[in-house]
Each structure stands twice: as structure tokens, then as C-alpha cells.
């Protein structure tokens, strides 16, 4: 169904990544080796008991002021405030098989939250005529989020979905005193063998998404979708693991995180004549969000790639969180918040300003972190 266009012709398909760090070929365990393994296992068991990173438990869940956490939210990788309402929507990435996820609504005043059950019975809108139907609610996995506000106070929510299909799911959002209600209105299915990470809305009604790894390349890219026009690749966006993405308010530039090189890129869009620019951060940037003053907030991980891989995915021993403020005029960056993992929170991914606080989501934790702006290394607003 896609008319994806890529520059440079067809490339040889990269070999599949190994499914494990370890193999059993030719392994011979000696008595000394066995003792070493047992010692390592005992040490790791003690470490795990003392530091069950990001499980949404601990003293921060009991605090009501200062740096604390809202616990019990499963993998709120991305989050958005719904206009000037009292509600924040977070994704739920589900379990390790990208299933049993969805959305949560968090009330700003008292930090109470509840799961949102989207209405899925409506047929897809004409804009999404190629959509095969509503997602399976048991498989839905909400990853990156984007919001398109409308003049009447309603919104359109876009969510990267990995559960059951690789797609951007689209919802109409209405907010009441009880919280936001989501009504599914369509989807945009990704090209075959493509997995998206983040999504952003374009002024023309289209979308842009980041693809961390193209199936035919070791690099990632940004894809653009327009209603009735399918997917095309945005030139100048082939980076090493494209991650978070934002569109400038005037729609002429993209901001794209390159995770592996700890860099945020500004890329011209749609024939804009401004040259591309980049800024290097002191950590690997995951998501991007605008602050109320128009600056960009990049959130990510101040650890080595090896630690991110082992402690973020394989062992669950926790990775740190860092947030930088980027001035869009000068593209200068400064880290405003940094901390290590603990039993409550690990691996921050997305930060938004809510009143006089910074709310931070995570791709592994059962919690979101709340930081008073007064606790930052330098003023944000």
C-alpha cells in the first residue's frame, strides 16, 4: 500500500541482528568457571535485591512535594498535556511483546490517574481510507505521541503502535471534568518491515515519523506521510538511530534526535532554504518536546550504549536520566537536570513542563517522575 521513495536506489539488506549476546557453541565449564559463575550470580542477585530499578516503588512514591514520582503507570514512554486542561495523557507501551498497552490520563492537581479505554467502533475517516480497521485493544501498544489542537478546544492524538501492526493510530480527543475520552478515527500503516519510534504532526495534515533502523540500511530516517500521497523519505535525515522528532511552529524545519551520536539535528523541510544545523549533547537523546517559552527539551540517557543495552533491556539494572534545554535561535544546549536510576524510576525518555514542574516519562519504569522547576540546574522559563 506504500509508495515509499528512498534516495540512492536499492541497498543490500543488512543482516538480521543477533537475538542474544551469548551463544553456547564450544562452551566448556570448568570447576573454577562454575564457581565464578555462581559468584557472579550471587552478586547480581544481591544487586538486584538492593536496586530493583524503575519498578515504581520506594520513598518517592510517598512524597507529595519536591522530586517525587507517580507510581503504577506502566512504561509511560511519552506524555502530553491536553492544551491548558487539567489532564496529561501518557502512553503505555505494554509488555515485552508489545501487547496489553494503551493510554493513561493523569490529573494535574492531585496526580491521580486512570486507564483510558478508547472507543473503537467508529469506521475510519475518509482521510485514512487505506486503514484496514481499528486496532485490537488487547494488542495496542502506545509508544510515541503527538497532538494536533483544534480551534474548539478538541484535539487529535497520534500514537505510534507496535501491537498487532506497525501503525500510527489516530484518535479524536474530548476533555471533560472526568478526564479525556478517546475515539478512534483511523490509522496510517507503516511500510512493510519499518518500525516507527516517534511521530509529529505537520501543518498540512500530514505526519512525520522517525524510523530508528531502515530495513535496507544500518541507518535510520524520517518518513513523511500526506493524506492520499503515501510515505516518502525526508532528505537529510539518515542518522544513526533516529529517535525523537518535532516540527517547528511554522512547519519549515524538523528537529530530529540522533541517539547514537548524542546529537539533535535541525533539518529544513519542504524546500526551505535554511541550512541544516546540529548540537551535540552530553547524553543520548530520546524524545523532544517544546517548553512554553518555545525552547526544546531533549530527554535521554547519560550512560554508555553498552550500559543502556544491558541495564535498559537485558538485565533491568537501571539507567540514568538527563534533560537538556535547547535554544532554537542559537541551537545551543545546556543540561538542566540529571540523576541516576533507583528503585522508583529509571530511563527517562520525555519531559514536559506542567505548571512549575517538569514531568518525565520512561520506557521501562512503572512510574513518571515529577521535578519542581526550582530543582533544576538553571532556570528553564
Would you mind describing this structure in some detail?
By secondary structure, the protein is mainly β. It has a domain at 78-189. The protein is 8% helix and 38% strand. The protein has helices spanning 31-50, 305-314; strands spanning 68-71, 79-81, 87-92, 102-107, 113-116, 142-149, 155-161, 167-176, 179-189, 199-201, 207-211, 221-226, 230-233, 242-247, 253-258, 263-268, 277-280, 284-290, 296-301, 321-326, 333-339, 348-354, 357-362, 367-372. The strands form six sheets. The chain has a four-stranded antiparallel β-sheet, with no helix packed on it. The protein has a four-stranded antiparallel β-sheet with strand order 2-3-4-5, with no helix packed on it. Strand 12 (221-226) and strand 13 (230-233) form a beta hairpin. It is globular, with a radius of gyration of 21 Å. The termini are far apart. Residues 193-297 form the SMP-30/Gluconolactonase/LRE-like region domain. It comes from Archangium gephyra. InterPro entries: 6-blade_b-propeller_TolB-like (IPR011042), Serum_paraoxonase/arylesterase (IPR051288), SGL (IPR013658). The chain crosses the membrane at residues 29-48. This is SMP-30/gluconolaconase/LRE-like protein.
Which helices and strands appear, and what pairs or packs with what?
Layout: H1 31-50, E1 68-71, E2 79-81, E3 87-92, E4 102-107, E5 113-116, E6 142-149, E7 155-161, E8 167-176, E9 179-189, E10 199-201, E11 207-211, E12 221-226, E13 230-233, E14 242-247, E15 253-258, E16 263-268, E17 277-280, E18 284-290, E19 296-301, H2 305-314, E20 321-326, E21 333-339, E22 348-354, E23 357-362, E24 367-372
Antiparallel strand pairs: 1-24, 2-3, 3-4, 4-5, 6-7, 7-8, 8-9, 10-11, 11-12, 12-13, 14-15, 15-16, 16-17, 18-19, 19-20, 20-21, 22-23, 23-24
Amino acid at each position: 500500500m506504500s509508495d515509499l521513495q528512498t534516495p540512492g536506489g536499492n541497498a543490500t539488506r543488512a543482516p538480521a541482528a543477533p537475538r542474544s549476546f551469548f551463544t553456547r557453541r564450544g562452551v566448556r565449564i570448568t570447576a573454577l568457571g562454575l564457581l565464578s559463575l555462581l559468584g557472579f550470580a550471587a552478586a547480581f542477585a544481591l544487586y538486584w535485591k538492593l536496586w530493583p530499578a524503575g519498578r515504581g516503588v520506594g520513598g518517592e512514591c510517598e512524597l507529595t512535594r519536591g522530586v517525587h514520582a507517580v507510581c503504577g503507570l506502566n512504561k509511560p514512554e511519552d506524555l502530553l498535556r491536553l492544551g491548558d486542561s487539567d489532564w496529561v495523557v501518557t502512553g503505555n507501551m505494554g509488555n515485552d511483546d508489545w501487547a496489553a498497552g494503551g493510554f493513561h490520563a493523569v490529573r494535574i492537581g492531585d496526580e491521580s490517574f486512570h486507564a483510558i479505554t478508547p472507543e473503537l467502533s467508529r469506521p475510519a475517516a475518509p482521510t485514512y481510507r487505506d486503514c484496514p480497521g481499528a486496532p485490537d485493544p488487547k494488542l495496542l501498544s502506545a509508544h510515541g505521541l503527538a497532538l494536533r489542537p483544534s480551534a474548539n478546544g478538541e484535539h487529535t492524538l497520534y500514537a505510534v503502535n507496535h501491537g498487532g501492526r506497525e501503525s500510527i493510530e489516530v484518535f479524536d480527543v474530548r476533555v471533560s471534568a472526568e478526564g479525556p475520552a478517546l475515539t478512534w478515527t483511523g490509522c496510517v500503516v507503516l511500510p512493510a518491515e519499518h518500525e516507527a519510534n516517534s511521530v509529529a504532526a505537520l501543518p498540512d495534515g500530514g505526519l512525520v515519523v522517525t524510523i530508528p533502523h531502515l530495513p535496507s540500511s544500518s541507518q535510520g530516517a524520517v518518513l513523511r506521510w500526506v493524506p492520499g500521497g503515501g510515505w516518502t523519505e525526508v532528505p537529510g535525515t539518515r542518522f544513526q538511530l533516529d529517535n525523537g522528532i518535532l516540527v517547528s511552529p511554522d512547519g519549515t524545519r524538523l528537529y530530529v534526535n540522533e541517539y547514537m551520536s548524542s546529537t539533535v539535528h535541525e533539518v529544513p523541510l519542504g524546500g526551505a532554504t535554511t541550512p541544516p544545523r546540529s548540537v551535540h549533547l552530553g547524553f543520548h537523546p530520546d524524545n523532544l518536546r517544546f517548553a512554553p517559552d518555545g525552547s526544546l527539551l531533549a530527554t535521554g540517557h547519560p550512560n554508555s550504549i553498552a550500559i543502556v543495552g544491558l541495564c535498559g533491556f537485558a538485565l533491568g539494572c537501571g539507567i540514568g536520566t538527563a534533560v537538556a534545554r535547547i535554544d532554537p535561535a542559537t541551537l545551543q544546549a545546556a543540561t538542566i537536570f540529571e540523576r541516576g536510576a533507583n528503585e522508583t524510576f529509571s530511563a527517562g525518555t520525555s519531559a514536559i513542563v506542567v505548571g512549575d514542574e517538569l514531568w518525565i516519562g520512561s520506557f521501562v519504569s512503572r512510574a513518571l517522575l515529577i521535578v519542581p522547576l526550582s530543582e533544576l540546574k538553571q532556570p528553564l522559563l
